[in-house]
Amino acid sequence: MRLKQEIAKISLISLVIIAILSVIGAVTLLITSAKAQTSYYGNQYRVISGYGAGDSEAGDIIDAGDKCSMRFTAQNTETAVTKVGVRVDETATATFRFGLQGSNPETGNPSGTWLGDNYQAYGDVAPDAPGILEITLNESASLTAGTVYHLVAEPAGDPGAEHLTLGCVNPSNQLYPYDSSSDTNANTLDYNISHTDAWTVRERSPFYLLFNASGFYEGNPYYTFASDDVFGTEYCGERFTVSGGNKHITTIGTVVRQYDTDEPADSLYYHLYDVTTETIFIVSGTLCTGADIEPDTTYVWQDATLGATQTLTDGNTYSLYFTSPDSVIGANYEIDQVKGYAGGTKTQSYGGATNAYYIYTTDGSPWDLYDYHDIPFRFTLGEGVVKIIIRKWRELYH
Predict the structure, then answer these.
(1) Which CATH number is 224-381's, of 2.60.40, 3.30.460, 2.40.160, 2.60.120?
(2) For the chain, what are the domain ranges?
(3) Of 357 and 205, the one with more pLDDT
């Protein structure tokens, strides 16, 4: 009898040990997985070439069989899209057709059928000036949030000697500009241009505008970029308002490059200021040095780890700006600036017109704000491990 009790006790202890080890192993796995997932807050949309650049062209429509597409995932359900907008890089006397089509779920290519009750959600127009071209559709189209669509451009007939170059943005961000949410379907495609009689994905961000009866309501307003020199008393940054709850941040970053081949004499510094509470320099420090960046190269993300987690308060407005006091022009840093048009499209730039790029210059004038331009910036979010562990635990055991 005693032997059976001892065996039962040993078995129970063994089971408890196995259970504890299993829990430890599961938690370790969850923590490792959680730490591997980096979550950012901020405008992560980049533009390194835009209007007029060869690598920011969706395609050059020359022949009657050529087509281009701006592929996107609808962010909002809209029952009556009445106009669309594209960016064209030249004028043409020939007529071209622009409109909305669904997406083939197997290939990701345009369906080949125009949307609309009568399949006429397109419009024909001859571009009379380079820049944004707005096209009124023959009939409205209905779009459903979360569904993939294409804004397709093609000749309305034989273009003859005329051609049309449709603009897009380099690189492929696969983000929705307004809030930097993911859109893995966002891309540009061409037909019969890169490859004969075939659709080709160009790996570029689409430029597209969607309008309803009230005006522009969704799309990508960024069409090109600019370089902003940071040296001496020349500063630049972003003014933004926090939304979606408090943000606990552990790093600060922006997209930067070194101008030319001469290394800057000073580091590049970040400064974060709470405009709402007028708290000067919530945090400031060194973002990078000239040695951290290869000279005269493309823009790259540079991030700095904060000494302690900082909290951005929901609804507060902040200014993040960058300086390099002892650097001089010609041996300075350049901050990437993503540019939109000054018109109504700024409502869909990052955070809408509330957020703005701003610059300070040596003439002693106040900060200049541009609510249709932004800079890429990001904060790594902290305090997310527990939430991820809970979610993954539920996924594994429920």
Answers:
(1) 2.60.120
(2) 55-219, 224-381
(3) 205
